[in-house]
Amino acid sequence: MTVEESPTIKVEIYDQAYTVRSDGDPEYLRQLAEYVDQRMREISSGTLTVDSRKVAILAALYIADELHQLRKAHEQADEQLASRSVECAEMLDRVLKVPRSVSASTS
């Protein structure tokens, strides 16, 4: 399916209607648009600017920060999991070696 053949989905962000071509889940795209809209409204309520472009850029920065913080947390969790997996494998190796040496010495 080409971009031209993709279905269109209408969304509204910050009082502007957009038609988006996507072969993805329409409900998911609507949820994304709603999220962006919420962030833009939060930012506009906390700033003096009424320029929608500036609000959009600030919202993009906010969302990019969220993304990078989540990636960092995910990487840290992956590192902890890898470290614990190595520890568990080493403990398992030690536990499995003990019975063999004990049984070998009793024979």
Which labels suit this protein?
107 residues; 2 strands; 2 helices; two-stranded antiparallel sheet; mainly alpha
List the helices and strands and how they pair.
Layout: E1 8-13, E2 16-21, H1 26-46, H2 52-106
Antiparallel strand pairs: 1-2
Description:
The chain is 71% helix and 11% strand. It is mainly alpha-helical and 107 residues long. It has one domain (3-99). A hairpin with a 2-residue loop joins strand 1 and strand 2 (16-21). The longest helix is centred in the last third of the chain and has 55 residues, at 52-106. The protein starts with 7 loop residues before the first strand and ends with a helix. The model has no long low-confidence stretch (mean pLDDT 89).
Short précis:
It is built from two helices and two strands, in the order E-E-H-H. 71% of the residues lie in helices and 11% in strands.
Mean of pLDDT: 89
- Estimate the helix proportion, in percent: over 70%
First-to-last CA distance = 70 Å
What percent of residues are in strands?
A: 5-15%
Strand order of the largest sheet: 1-2
Reading the helices and strands in chain order gives EEHH
> Could you say which structural class the secondary elements and strand pairing correspond to?
mainly alpha
